[in-house]
Specification:
Helix content: 25-40%
Largest sheet: 8 strands, mixed
Oligomer: single chain
Strand content: 25-35%
Shape: globular
Strand order of the largest sheet: 15-19-20-27-24-23-21-22
Number of helices: 21
Length: about 675
């Protein structure tokens, strides 16, 4: 072939979501593909999702667009990934063109907004050193180092400058350079955080990716929206302190929070939702309704349950214990402290010590507060010989555990240092494992439905085979465990997302995240496979063949913790609990304490005999003041008792959220209320 003859163009295949396949030249970009379909589509798309065609049919390999350090800088390599619209395609791929309506696209615009904010910060405060700026479920943040604290006026100036950067409509341009050059440049500039991220997330000899917009350059994996002009609706919200790498010995960083949406309407809706969240804050409602407290003289992260909160807790625990027994569990109790040697055998001393409290030296040995109940249940199993006929063995415990949380990380009931875990451990044969996991998942669904949560999402957390030092057990055991959990979910027909590298050190797990009334996800229920602890403790059972075999083990917690679940319940219901959970279910208001108190006492006795929790307001106050008190306490039913009611054995009913419903016979009201109790209805 002569030098003047052009080399043949290499073609690749691009499969679109409708299954159609296009042949395009290697190096074609997602934007080019969009333009070939429709210029209107090309103007609407934000980012692209690609997966090599060779991996496109692998089940369970779902994308995780959440921007964390690892995802931003490429530490987790997955077949499916998000890419810029200008990224050249160099292999056969499945391609999705994502518009603004896609959740992943929103994460991308938020990450781009973080770059816009960093641009503004450096233009206004050039002495600032940058950390990282990931997107979050609610917006984005950027960690920065600056000796002078940012003021509210500074935040306002940053937001105003961001608007200028957006108006400039600067293109986001991806460039690559040798790792060593990037390290040298950032070291020269004193950008210690960028140096750390390059060293952590890239390897010697690799190229690193940089994103530029205007005069701003940032080390980043991407992807980004096409230009800063696509960041149309944003808000700089607040600033908080954060230690570099979470270590209080390191520099004090400033974390600037913001949020971004594709339009002002969504931004306004977001702030209205934040107001609703604020109104449901369990810490505020817990104080208003006198449910619990945290006493600083006793210590942070330690919960004091007040009588009304204690009644709700008892109701929750009684239901859980009854359900456990009905489903074949046996209730056990284990000590709060155990010898340090036990935690060495279990592996917690080596893999979990940073989350445990320091050892206590007693006269016979060192002891540690338990962070988990599992070793205690293992010792109960091991206390007597087991046959295959005994399996599965299911032990359940509402056990108090203690985990070290740094002082700045606690948050009401949601993140504490001491909590009660509705823990259970199932010891079974390998052939029983799938059925037991399914039983746990069904139990978790029952918990969520009973307590008023109709929607949930499921994640399967697996190990990272490239980081075997962080896990125990052989690769064969890990593959067996992961496959067992996958098959259990598939048998139930439950959609799930696979999260690589998020397994516990002893085995993979299923996390069930409930969705509350505001659409927020809460991590509570978990089911974990464990082949490691039975081996570490030498657990055995005699099989049908007369030989000794090692059981497998399932850990499961469905409330997760009583404290966290209760905090979620408070916010889900805004303190207005269903009748069966409400600490005071019926409030009685005698119009005249002199004339109607005797009848009120009679009504109270009949209601209590029917199983209702009742309170009389016998104060010498006006009727409306008494009604207001019960209303503020979010009592489901308030019954007003006057001359007419006393004479006719009736009650005048005010229902929470509905108001005055008029008079009914007492017997009819009792029938209505007991039906709500028995059904555990969320409504009135």
């Amino acid at each position: 072939m002569s030098e003047g003859v052009m080399e043949a163009v290499q073609m690749i295949r691009v499969q679109l979501p409708d299954g159609s396949v296009r042949e395009v030249a290697k190096g074609t970009t997602p934007f080019d593909v969009a333009m070939s379909i429709s210029p209107r589509l090309a103007a609407a798309v934000v980012v692209a999702r690609v997966k090599p065609l060779s991996l496109a049919t692998i089940e369970g390999d779902a994308s995780d667009p959440e921007a964390s350090e690892a995802a931003m800088y490429g530490a987790v390599a997955t077949g499916e990934r998000l890419v810029d619209l200008t990224a050249p395609l160099d292999e056969d791929v499945a391609l999705e063109l994502l518009k603004e309506s896609d959740e992943a696209a929103l994460k991308v615009v938020r990450h781009s907004a973080a770059h816009v904010m960093a641009t503004a910060i450096l233009e206004l405060f050039p002495e600032t050193k940058l950390g990282h700026g990931p997107a979050t479920d609610a917006g984005f943040f950027y960690d920065v180092y600056r000796e002078t604290p940012f003021s509210d006026a500074d935040l306002a100036a940053i937001e105003a400058r961001m608007a200028e950067v957006v108006a400039r409509d600067e293109k986001f341009v991806r460039e690559e350079e040798p790792r060593e050059k990037g390290l040298a440049d950032y070291e020269k500039q004193g950008e210690f955080m960028k140096v750390h991220f390059i060293e952590r997330f890239t390897k010697p000899g690799e190229e690193i990716s940089l994103y530029k917009n205007g005069n701003f350059t940032d080390f980043c994996r991407g992807p980004h929206v096409p230009s800063t002009g696509r960041v149309k609706a944003f808000k700089v919200m607040s600033v908080a302190g954060a230690y570099w790498l979470g270590d209080e010995k390191n520099q004090q960083l400033q974390r600037i929070y913001g949020t971004a949406f594709f339009n002002a309407k969504d931004l306004d809706a977001h702030f209205k939702r934040l107001e609703e969240i604020k109104a449901r804050d369990h810490r505020v409602l817990g104080k208003q309704l006198d449910l619990f407290s945290i006493q600083e003289v006793a210590g942070s992260g330690l919960i004091f349950w007040h009588p009304k909160g204690g009644l709700i807790r008892k109701t929750m625990e009684d239901w859980m214990k009854d359900e456990c027994i009905r489903r074949g569990y046996e209730m056990v109790y284990t000590p709060h402290i155990m010898k340090r040697e036990l935690w060495k055998i279990s592996g917690h001393e080596g893999h979990y010590a940073e989350n445990m409290y320091p050892p206590m030296e007693l006269d016979d040995a060192e002891y540690r507060l338990k962070p988990m109940n599992c070793p205690g249940h293992i010792l109960i199993y091991k206390n007597s010989p087991k046959s295959y006929r005994d399996l599965p063995v299911r032990y359940a415990e509402l056990g108090n555990v203690y985990r070290y949380e740094r002082s700045g990380t606690m948050h009401g009931l949601l993140r504490v240092r001491g909590f009660t875990q509705d823990d259970a451990h199932i010891f079974c044969t390998p052939s029983q494992i799938e059925d037991e996991v399914i039983g746990c998942v069904e139990f978790a669904q029952s918990v969520l439905n009973t307590f008023g949560f109709a929607e949930f999402k499921v994640e399967l957390s697996t190990w990272d085979p490239a980081d075997k030092k962080s896990y125990t057990g052989s690769e064969a055991n890990w593959n067996l465990a992961i496959d067992s959990l996958k098959r259990a979910l598939e048998r139930k027909g439950i959609p799930f997302r696979t999260i690589p590298g998020e397994a516990a050190f002893y085995g993979p797990k299923i996390d069930i995240k409930l969705v509350d009334v505001l659409g927020r996800l809460w991590q509570l229920s978990t089911v974990q496979f464990d082949f490691t602890l039975p081996e570490r403790f030498g657990l055995e059972y005699k099989g049908e063949d007369g030989e000794m075999h090692q059981p497998v083990m399932v850990h499961r917690a469905l409330f997760g913790s009583i404290e966290r679940f209760f905090g979620v319940l408070i916010e889900h219901y805004a303190g207005a609990f269903p009748l069966w959970l409400a600490p005071v279910q019926v409030g009685l208001v005698p119009i005249s304490s002199d004339k109607h108190l005797e009848y009120a006492e009679k009504v109270k006795a009949q209601l209590e005999a029917a199983g209702l929790r009742v309170e009389i307001d016998a104060r010498n106050e006006k009727m409306n003041a008494k009604i207001r008190e019960f209303t503020l306490a979010k009592v489901p039913f308030v019954l007003i008792l006057g001359d007419k009611e006393t004479a006719t054995d009736s009650v005048s009913v005010r229902t929470r959220g509905k108001g005055d419903e008029g008079s009914v016979q007492l017997a009819a009201f009792i029938e209505r209320a007991t039906a709500l109790l028995e059904s555990r209805s969320a409504g009135l």
